[in-house]
Specification:
This protein is α/β, with parallel strands linked by helices and 250 residues long. Helix content is 56%, strand content 11%. The radius of gyration is 23 Å and the shape is elongated.
Length: 250
């Protein structure tokens, strides 16, 4: 049959979405009355949707988020000083287009990682490439990469991400190699891409963690002056969720 030959050609051109749309169209009798332009539009929409879904799945997989988080599930009821208007501003991704940064600070358990992953998820859904990593782990990866010759490839991977999320800015003073690697990352991304950093430490203590005053000045100058800042308050969200799910005797 001619239709089977058409399907084979569509498969050969990797247009499986159009094949699926064609099958659906043939099953619904009402589609017979549609004009050629309407039928073509439906087939193209089917292929477009399939490709967009595949792209999103790939972006989310490659981002390697620690948590499966989304902005719709953010809890604004707890007194964390989480500004809903600011989150809405960040949702539109204009800050990425302008290559601004974002710094999220707060005590352990206040939801820094969840918020960073939720924002990263939102960015992926708008077609941007995101990469997530705990900063200590990323610095260790770079240390190993220098030894096995993959340093440049790894740095290029980080540089290509429209948003690089560096979670859990270290509580320990960085050694010389780690601080230089951090400077390289920040330098590569300055004015080109956006970086999101989370930390239990207030920004004014970051100099102490970086260790070397000159490198600390260079890193912070590139990070904080064009950055949105969110300081989360309140108690641990883990404890709050635990209390909500704990059965209490009547």
């Amino acid at each position: 049959m001619l239709i089977n030959q058409t399907k084979e050609k569509l498969y050969a051109m990797r247009l499986s979405g159009m094949v699926s749309g064609l099958d659906e169209m043939l099953k619904i009798k009402e589609n017979a009355s549609l004009s050629f332009e309407e039928k073509l539009s439906l087939l193209v929409d089917k292929e477009w949707t399939l490709r967009e879904n595949r792209k999103l799945s790939r972006l989310l997989r490659e981002a390697k988020f620690k948590e499966n988080a989304c902005l719709e599930d953010l809890d604004y009821r707890q007194k964390r000083e989480l500004d809903k208007n600011l989150i809405q501003t960040l949702t539109n991704c204009n800050w990425l287009e302008k290559h601004h940064n974002l710094i999220i600070t707060g005590a352990t358990g206040t939801g820094k990682t969840y918020l960073s992953c939720a924002l990263g998820n939102s960015v992926c859904r708008q077609g941007y490439k995101v990469y997530y990593s705990r900063l200590p782990r990323l610095l260790e990866e770079l240390r190993i990469a220098k030894a096995d010759g993959s340093y440049i490839r790894l740095m290029n991977k980080f540089a290509r991400a429209a948003l690089l999320i560096l979670d859990d800015f270290s509580l320990n003073v960085l050694d010389d190699e780690a601080r230089h690697n951090l400077l390289e990352i920040v330098e590569d991304r300055q004015i080109r891409q956006s970086t999101l950093i989370t930390s239990q430490l207030p920004i004014e203590h970051w100099h102490e963690v970086i260790g070397n005053p000159t490198i600390a000045d260079a890193v912070l100058d590139r990070l904080i002056h064009n950055a949105y800042k969110i300081e989360l308050k309140g108690g641990s969200m883990r404890k709050i969720r635990s209390d909500l799910t704990t059965c209490r005797p009547l």
